[in-house]
């Protein structure tokens, strides 16, 4: 095998000008130059970039004899292997004599047809050429000349068409087809140029990363035509708010970016961010229907003091994420604190993936007490992460990140898989734990395999309660969820609605989901001891639940007073720190063994209970 270095040297040191052109199958005279060597650029005077992509006509100078030109076209059209000695012009117009040779090639794999063109510069005018009369020269050749002229006319027309097509392709390669803004490819090219200029002492610049907050909702409610119209509208707005110094691009989907040179005032940057956010607060109308679609913006500055200016887009993306986490419809500047948070989040993401592999998630249990007897009726399962470096982490430290990663289902599976063995351990020890309740994420509830997982777990469905967040079921109560709830009831699983009152539930919603248990959120239970209005509200919730045949759980019971009041008002079950914080399975088993399952002794008398009778 010939070494690549040797082939490279042949290409560079060969004195014969060589070029390759990709030809049209139907007509060998229509071609596009794809490559040439150094000698070819030296002889013609054109640079490599000026030759590649051009039609073959770039090799025909104004000084070439028309007869020679026609001969070349004829032989190219017929795919002939030929050589001619002709007068031609270099790029600067200088005349010279050359020997031009053409060799047809073909690619058996692709079927493409190619021309190999070679040029040799001649020192003097060839004798045979000097004596040769111009072509065509005599009357009998007029018909042939007319034929050639027609072919030239057709070729020139085809050349013009291909030239226009090339311009369109070049434009489309840099433009977003929908909005006409720069596309991701052009943005990345321009960004490199801006950064290169910055490193050479150019002006600092800002990156605005823009994301629409409710774009999917627009597509879902009004249709994809409306979504496209919205994107076009946003593009128009960005054009209006920017000027010729700025670069505006659509990266894809509902993501846009703006590059703006840094002016003398920070208002040059903050003003644009403000304007984008404010403009997007206006309603969007489509075919007589209106909706709202705000935008969040992240802003980062690239300056010469940065070690890695290329990081500026990632910084703007981090600032965008921060703006969204603060409530959306706003903008945020990138700060070093955000950078530290981003690093921590990346570390958390990596650790979570490892945690899933090593099954580091463990269940903890909080007792749920029967208000009538004071004995344990159930235990709510609360996941904890046994982090090897940071210790035991609560859900607030990782669930939001896990949800964004799409691994909540995996965490649910790991936690749920541990429950049958834990219940079996309690039963074997002779410790009574009637049932367990577990919160289920929205994705898990909508997963058709969830029912199969319960059936194959080995856990008695009669000892299982599935808790659904009010906000979750209202958003996800589709056909799949309805089917899942029906199957759960058929298995004997109890359905509980968690944190009632914190979302937007209605009686109609309760009828739709038909929970057997209604859990009143702790924020309503906390003030009932001192606040008469809070008691009236809780009494109303209890009344609604009871009228629909539901058992009522009071969450957030932290004191004896809370327990007494909630019990007297009609709550069937009590849950909160007064009876115990979430604990591991071993601690719960020990607690149950020591107390015999009795966590509380309901009082028959309590100061102030008479005040609540009229609400019960």
Please describe what this structure looks like.
It is a single chain. The protein has 616 residues and is α/β, with parallel strands linked by helices. Strands 13-14-16-17-18-19-20-21 form an eight-stranded mixed beta barrel, surrounded by seven helices. A hairpin with a 5-residue loop joins strand 3 and strand 4 (95-106). The radius of gyration is 39 Å and the shape is elongated. The protein is 44% helix and 22% strand.
In short:
With about 625 residues, the chain is α/β, with parallel strands linked by helices. Helix 8 (about 215-220) crosses helix 9 (about 225-240).
Principal-axes geometry comes out as elongated
Low-confidence stretches: 129-140, 610-616
Helix and strand content put the structural class at alpha/beta
User: What is the percentage of strand-forming residues?
Assistant: 15-25%
Strand order of the largest sheet: 13-14-16-17-18-19-20-21
